[in-house]
Amino acid sequence: MTSKQPLVRRIIIAFTLMTLVVSGGFSLGIVAIVHFIEEHLVTKEMSEELDSILQKDLAKGIPPRLDLKTQLFASHMPGYEIPKNFIGLDEGFNEVVGDTEAYYVFIRDTPQQRYVLVQEQAEFEARENALFAVVFAGFILTGLAAWLLGWLMAQTIIAPLARLAQQVRHRDQLLTIAPNLAPEYPEDEVGHLAAAFDETLGQLRSSLERERLFTSDVSHELRTPLMVIASSAELLEASVLDERGRNQVDRIQRATAEISDLVETFLLLARATTHPNPTGGSLTLEQVARELAERWAPRFAEKGLAFNLVIEEHNPQLLHGSFLSTVMSNLMRNALHYTEHGEVRLLLSARGFRVEDTGQGVPRAQQEDIFKPFVRGSEARGEGLGLGLSLVKRICAHQRWQVRMYSLPAGGSCFEVNLT
């Protein structure tokens, strides 16, 4: 599992743990070496001293000649009885440490006797404990120093990354030409990261610029033929036509108005920044809804569907007509394509509007992906490319509106747009 700790903290922990392991190993090594040398040297010294006592003193029948810190005990020698605290020890070197006393005890067993040579070593034990205390204090101080050095090292290592992250975070204007970041950093991993970001940003900037220019140019060039179509439709409407011809002219006018709204929407989006930027307007939700209801009602009637505009609550908020019209039109077109029988309802509320239909609905697993570009439902119909709902999502993000889709209990789908 990937650690979610900050990089600075991970560097400090790694550096501190490494130092503690190394210093701990040295500390334990010092303790082990002290004990090994102590046992080896004391055993050799006391063994030689016991040999000297047995050969030079006891063999000649004279009392053992010992210094003030050394005592001799034997199991079968009168006056040299072994004290209780030394009974039961193993042969060879032993160390007996009490609350106030400390002894080296060397035991040798012979067929006739057990000899116990005892040497008082309280002073050496005190010095040994002082040495161990110094080693332990050094271990603790090494850990604290490692933490401090690790923190300083982490700050030094992370500083270029933090600086790069700050520079990247403030490059919100992707279409604005800005100097590359890589020349500011050395030829190391951070410099390579900055170079990779510059390359990626350059590709993204070029792609966005091409998209912006394409959208702007196409939208601009479409205005002239749209004006020709609109004026021609007005001339046809003024002429004498039968009912079928007048219906065709009405369809041309509706389509022209819809394309004009889309052209205006694309131009506004092409000029927009990459961040949400709500644009004010002069139309209310009810005005846009009534205009679109009048435009779309004949299409629903041609398919045999009932269409109802329901005003649950009034919303006096002034909105951008082109954006709102495009969002509402795409949702109504989506409902028209995917509803074979029943009705479609456009419901207005104080917070926004809903488009409800009695169609097949969208499986729950696809409801999150339905707003992605080129994604169409499992019951897709017609020759659409799956861009209508993607455009809806993009406009809502630009205007800071919220759009969501869910299934209705009685069947069908509901697309809800929150405008507040």
From TrEMBL:
- Identify the residues that the record assigns to the Histidine kinase domain, covering every copy: 217-420
Keyword Phosphoprotein in record: yes
The compartments listed are: Membrane
Is Endoplasmic reticulum tagged as a keyword? Answer: no
Which EC number(s) are documented for this chain? 2.7.13.3
Ranges for domain HAMP come to: 155-209
Q: Where are the transmembrane segments?
A: 12-37, 130-154
Keywords, A to Z, come to: Kinase, Membrane, Phosphoprotein, Transferase, Transmembrane, Transmembrane helix, Two-component regulatory system
Looking up CDD domains in the UniProt record yields: HisKA
Catalyzed reaction equations: ATP + protein L-histidine = ADP + protein N-phospho-L-histidine
**Primary location class:** membrane
Protein name per the record? histidine kinase
Q: Which organism is it from?
A: Pseudomonas neustonica
